[in-house]
Amino acid sequence: MATIKDIALRSNVSATTVSRVLNNDQTLSVAPDTRKRILETAKELGYKTVRERRFEQQSAEKTNQIKIGIILCQSLEEELNDPYFLPIRQGIEKECLQHGIHVTELFRIKSFQASQLTDDFDGLIIVGRFRPEAIQNAKEKIKNIVYIDYAPDEETFDSVVIDFEVATSNIIHHLFQNGYQQLGFIGGKQLEHTYTGYTNVEDPREKTFRKMMEQYGTYNPNHVFIGEFTISNGYQLMKKAINRGDLPEAFFIASDPMAIGALRAIQEANLRVPEDIAIVSFDDIEMAQFTSTPLTTIKVYTEEMGRTGVKLLLDKINGRNLPLKVVVPTKLVVRDSCGSKLNRV
């Protein structure tokens, strides 16, 4: 670790001058350029004063005592079948580890009881759609709550989300720009959990797809297929679309696992991607670039969503009162599954 002597040698001043500058001695008369040079050198060398080191140690000790509860609205099987949520949890765990938070309890919704949340929790992170009234009693005990992938009450809770409407719009514009007019949709219903069970709610991707296609006057309900967000459902739904006939030119598939299943059904029917059916999907999981036809897909920074949730929670624990909503951007990653129809001979 750098010392005051190291800074003095590089700054070409005495060690005493360095010490007085770093400790903000107001009685010291020193040229502004010299003061700036000393501070910049200390920063470059990573030097920290005794006060700074003591403050960091106290902060670390305080953080180590933080107890965070995490509620996941997915079973382990659901999490593995739809890997959108797995990296969110991993991001939470990595960020907690980075801050030295080891006392973290994990609850899955199907076995969760509100009585498990006691007032010794400093904060709570909820991943997925879990209605606020389902944790009403817990909210009285735990005032620091962050939602990830859901923003049920922006005036009360912090939240970390992505803009599904913008992402879906980007997909549809991309398809139209590449010459595709007749578009289909394959997706699943989202679950909104309550204290006693759950209800099916419309996926915002499906809702935006229908709205935009209606605006363009090309919406065809026969080209919309809804199941569950799994590989097997993607396979079955694409097979159903093929067997029905009158296939659209391209499909927006709401998750990469569903798209992987759909690719298998297309291959079995001796059809080609993108020549016979173009595909754009969602998530950009690692497998997306290694499928038989690499997938054009929306990249979601899921791990960063988890990390951001922890940062918001720690900020709230440290005294912030204003609820914040963070919208993490997405990115369209263009690969082979959606080649330009306009350039084909």
Automatic annotation (TrEMBL):
**Superkingdom:** Bacteria
Domain HTH lacI-type, which positions?
Answer: 2-58
User: Keyword set for this entry?
Assistant: DNA-binding, Transcription, Transcription regulation
Q: Which CDD domains match?
A: HTH_LacI (cd01392), PBP1_GalR (cd01544)
Please name the SMART domains in this protein's record. HTH_LACI
Q: Which terms in the Gene Ontology molecular function aspect does this entry carry?
A: DNA-binding transcription factor activity; transcription cis-regulatory region binding
State if Transcription regulation is listed as a keyword: yes
SUPFAM superfamilies found in the cross-reference section: lambda repressor-like DNA-binding domains, Periplasmic binding protein-like I
Protein name (database record) = Transcriptional regulator
